[in-house]
Amino acid sequence: MKATFEVLEKLLSAYCIESFGNSEEEIAEKEAESGIKFPKSLRDYYKKFGKCNYITKSCNNQYEPLLLYEFFIPGEDFFTSDKDYLVFYQCVESMIYCGIKFTDLRLEDPPVYICVWDKPGWYLENISLINFLVCKALIQIAVEARLPYWVYFRENMWKLSDYRKAWQICDSYNEIEESTTTPAWKIFIKDDVLIVFESVQNENEEYITGVSLASFDKENIKKMLFRKTPAGELPQYQTNLPLSEI
Question: What is the pTM of this model?
Fold first, then answer.
């Protein structure tokens, strides 16, 4: 499944309202202030999700979007040697920043680059801004337990294939693939339940360090926990579902 704004919109559709986005006037004002015309994909994202509370809350060591008025162009005191980037995303605790090259701003869906405080350069993070925005939002929503119902599985003996067999997750239909250069996540949506697997970079993708489920649909997320599986009972988990219901 391709990572598109429609995927994110569908997940939040019952709860997304017009006020979750920035207005054309707000975007135009920020463009005038910075002297930069934003790529169409970035404008579309902020028109739909710029104020969405499921995405914009502060994160616990996760990438998070800067609000529209927080976008910045690196100044002289910024640690990178190249300042010609529009910075729109960050990971506060790790001092990681994500930006778009000035020369790529004319592209509808430009690549995304990252910089880290202890390195002076920028490095390609994702070949697609849309893919980056959608996948990072989905990871954030699941890992930060942003939706009304959530489940979390810590690292255990189960592999990725065990969970996928248990929940009958199909690659071609359910997976939202990241086009990142640093793959560390597997993202799926099945029966209105967001499922995010965390792995270790450069390790066998079968090895999973954590699984996060999130949904607006209590009944469907409960069904995930009661599934009979070839690998036996599901591993122990944490959840905010009432004990009387699980």
Answer: 0.92
